[in-house]
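To illustrate the input format used throughout this study, we show a single complete record. The first block contains the structure-token representation of the backbone; no residue identities are included at this stage. The design step must infer an amino acid for every position from geometry alone.
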């Protein structure tokens, strides 16, 4: 874990080296000041030598100036190193997430990833800065102060050693108890963030069902769990200060008692005792700061493990050594394909799928919920890899292609349509970054999106809110289809992406596809017969297997599942904007 995290220091190594260097110089200046002060008292004030007072006083001022300068430089480079380290951690995690397959992403909740990139990274930033400064300053100050104390009087210095031993044992017991609570704390952070994210993203549903009180109670429960864990952890850590104060005052009492005795018998001067008091405060303040470092490291250890989990996660999918960078055509072959989302679980989503689709064909896919329709098309663009068998596009196994090339030529409009904040043109250009406005208009005509875009006052420059909340479901679907068309793919997959579009518009979109992109292989997953009955062939799926693969007419004659779906939809009344004819065939759109 530590190696993974420190590898992200990157270009801030110089600042990370200069920070402890300047901190060490700052400590050296501070340690020398009490020693000079003792000389002022003994050689200047008590000896009545004013010149020595001025000389040593000027030297103290010089040391104080250098201490200030070194402290400022240490603070500057420490801030640069810790902020840069945090930025690199965020960028590293974000870049890593972009390489994840769907199966990788399934391991981490969205709320968990957000917590890792915010709260956890902030903890690591604070811990790193403290490690560079306080974790260097405190041990150095401790050692140097102890050395100076032994130089002044060895016997009195034994008081410090006893105090350090007592304090170290107490801190070790406190920290070991607090660690386990912080591991739980960040798990509860995930639950809290998940509750917030779910509520905000689904606020319309919450209000529609008047569930505000229920959501408030759920959030309060998550917040209370976090509160209780923090109270337990902080209650333990709060023992640091009382223990520290007990040791500090015990040292001062012991130093005063024994120091006065040594002054009387002549083994110690007044100046030396004064400097010993300065050093004892330096020693004990160093221990206090070290306890703060331990607290922060305790908190950040849990955060560090969570960040390292993301950075060390191996992407399930990767490019081959010499990837193919050109796809010849849009033909698709499945050869004895078996697939499961969790390999080895025994739960097969697809079982022994074998089929061939010619380039330019329009294929409809229909079947019940959970039969494997979406899983099937996800394998074409290699969003997942098969367990057994192989999927071929353009005559080659998809695992041989460069994934970027493959996904640029296999455009997928998913079930959940997502638009991003920006103008309509900005969203369309996700399909092609340098597309002209005329190219965007053309694909919108094919997707029948131009009809509503031109009614907006700002047309194609209309601002889309985050998540596309200011457009309807059908409008969002048509914009997503247009965005996919802009890629000019060899294969276009519509995964139930016209479900929010009325059947008249659905028919127009399919007609536009036939006339304007005849060479593109089109795969249409749908729940309604009217969306696929004009396809060249229709794939009927049931429980992860192929039940039938033929034309609409032939399936009506030979496939019981297709017949049942057809009878339910068409003879039962059909779609809301269709008029069923007497024979049961689809009537004229109205």
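Output of the design step:
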């Amino acid at each position: 874990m530590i190696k993974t995290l420190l590898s992200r220091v990157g270009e801030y190594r110089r600042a990370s080296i200069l920070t402890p260097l300047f901190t060490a110089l700052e400590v050296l200046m501070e340690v020398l000041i009490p020693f000079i002060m003792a000389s002022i008292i003994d050689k200047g004030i008590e000896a009545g030598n004013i010149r020595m007072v001025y000389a040593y006083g000027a030297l103290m001022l010089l040391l104080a100036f250098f201490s200030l300068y070194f402290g400022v430089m240490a603070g500057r480079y420490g801030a640069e190193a810790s902020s840069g380290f945090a930025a690199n951690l965020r960028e590293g995690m974000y870049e890593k997430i972009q390489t994840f397959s769907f199966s990788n992403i399934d391991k981490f909740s969205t709320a968990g990833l957000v917590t890792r990139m915010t709260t956890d990274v902030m903890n690591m930033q604070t811990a790193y800065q403290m490690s560079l400064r306080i974790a260097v300053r405190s041990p150095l100050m401790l050692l140097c102060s102890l050395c100076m104390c032994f130089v002044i009087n060895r016997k009195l210095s034994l008081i410090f050693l006893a105090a350090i031993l007592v304090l170290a044992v107490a801190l070790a017991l406190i920290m070991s108890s607090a660690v386990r609570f912080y591991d739980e704390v960040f798990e509860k952070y995930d639950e809290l963030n998940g509750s917030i994210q779910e509520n905000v993203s689904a606020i319309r549903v919450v209000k529609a069902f008047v569930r505000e009180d229920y959501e408030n109670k759920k959030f309060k429960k998550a917040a209370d769990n976090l509160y209780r864990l923090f109270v337990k952890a902080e209650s333990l850590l709060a023992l640091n200060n009382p223990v520290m104060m007990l040791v500090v005052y015990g040292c001062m009492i012991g130093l005063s008692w024994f120091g006065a005795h040594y002054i009387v018998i002549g083994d110690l001067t007044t100046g030396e005792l004064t400097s010993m008091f300065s050093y004892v405060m330096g020693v004990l303040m160093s221990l206090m700061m070290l306890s703060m470092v331990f607290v922060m490291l305790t908190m950040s250890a849990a955060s560090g493990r969570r960040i390292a989990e993301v950075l060390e996660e191996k992407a399930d999918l990767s490019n081959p050594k010499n990837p193919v960078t050109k796809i010849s055509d849009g033909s698709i072959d499945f050869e004895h394909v078996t697939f499961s989302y969790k390999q080895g679980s025994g739960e097969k989503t697809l079982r022994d799928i074998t089929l061939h689709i010619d380039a330019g064909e329009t294929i409809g896919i229909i079947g019940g919920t959970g039969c494997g329709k979406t899983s099937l098309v996800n394998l074409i663009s290699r969003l997942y890899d098969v367990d057994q068998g192989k999927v071929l596009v353009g005559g080659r196994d998809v695992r041989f292609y460069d994934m970027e090339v493959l996904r640029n030529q296999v455009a997928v409009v998913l079930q959940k349509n997502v638009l991003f904040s920006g103008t309509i043109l900005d969203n369309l250009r996700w399909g092609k970054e340098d597309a002209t406005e005329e190219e965007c208009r053309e694909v919108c005509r094919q997707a029948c999106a131009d009809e509503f875009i031109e009614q907006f006052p700002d047309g194609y420059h209309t601002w889309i809110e985050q998540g596309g909340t200011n457009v309807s479901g059908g409008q969002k679907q048509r914009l997503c289809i247009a965005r996919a068309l802009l890629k000019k793919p060899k294969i276009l997959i519509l995964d139930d992406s016209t479900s929010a579009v009325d059947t008249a518009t659905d028919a127009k979109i399919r007609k536009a596809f036939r006339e304007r992109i005849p060479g593109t292989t089109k795969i249409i997953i749908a729940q309604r017969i009217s969306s696929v009955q004009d396809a060249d062939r229709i794939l009927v799926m049931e429980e992860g297997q192929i039940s039938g693969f033929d034309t609409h007419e032939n399936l009506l004659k030979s496939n019981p599942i297709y017949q049942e779906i057809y009878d339910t939809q068409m003879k039962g009344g059909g779609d809301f904007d269709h008029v069923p004819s007497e024979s049961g065939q689809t009537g004229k759109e109205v």
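Structural context for interpreting the output: Residues 50-99 form the longest helix (50 residues). Residues 332 and 548 are 17 Å apart (CA to CA).
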